[in-house]
Give the backbone structure.
Amino acid sequence: MRAPGRRLAVPLAAALAAALALTLGTLGTSPEADAAPNPQVDCANFTSMLAPGSLAARTMASYCGVVPAVASAGPMPVIHEAGPDLAALEREIRSAVDDYWVDGNYAVAVTDLQTGETIEVNGNRRQLAGCSINFFVMLQTMIERERGALTAAETDTLLRTTVHFSDPVAARQLYTMIGDGSLRAGVKETRDLVRALGLKSTVLDHAPLFLDAASLGSSDNFLTAADANRALAQLWWGGVLPEASRDKLLDTMSDVKPGLNYLTGYGTGGVVSHKNGFFPVPAGGWWVDNDIGLVRFERDGVTYAYAISFLSERVPEKYGSLSLFRPISELVWDYFDRTYP
């Protein structure tokens, strides 16, 4: 059963989103876990109004200096522009995108999760998300497990199926469980998480494939490559889940059937945790093919990681993005393999 009193009062939503964005580094600042409270937030009163154990309560408590950060006690990195080495890779990727011979809208984002340096090609262009947006319902499921509202026994198989087969039916069940039996309530709660993470260009309107069942009133689900990387970075840096739960989710996301490992899972020597999004648009005669992921690899006992997101839409050929994104995936791996030998 879900603990009572867990939902935020509506008037708090805007203030919470701003406070969480500051906490998680998405507005360009990143206070240390023991930093002085934000003078613009009445920490004691604000935190007391949040459901105990919720993502909002834990993040606000960390921000206000009430308890240590969720997963680490150090300052959280901030996503920022790339230095000269990574900028050179961006130029290579941009040239590949610009010169690609198959029409379509293509976007790429890469983030060095050691430094926060990020490169983007069309990274802020909003594109159809497909099932890649189900990354957020998986993340919300792990948050619910942390606070005891859901259990591993209830959700492990659904999480694995959502990833392994990119199964929208399993994802729909997760939304419904999060919403206490209501698909629409689960979508809304997951949308609130998206907003709390500061992802201003991401639109979660409905469970993929089930537009008519529980739309929140937008035209469709949309994502940007930059937002996908911001979300993956926050997960990796410990702003959303404790380390054990984070690693459990990443391990689950690494178990993808071979036929779906053709974009971010291609040409790397690391462990790729990712979420696909692929579907045809019959009315337009074109395809959407997306993949957002986090790649981990180890050198001398140290784990390194990077986030990488590929989005494509309006591609007239099935799998028409492969000859673009596969070489880019290899380029990115080669860069990190050289940078962290």
Notes: Residues 1-47, 62-74 have pLDDT under 50 and may be disordered. The radius of gyration is 19 Å. The longest helix spans residues 322-339.
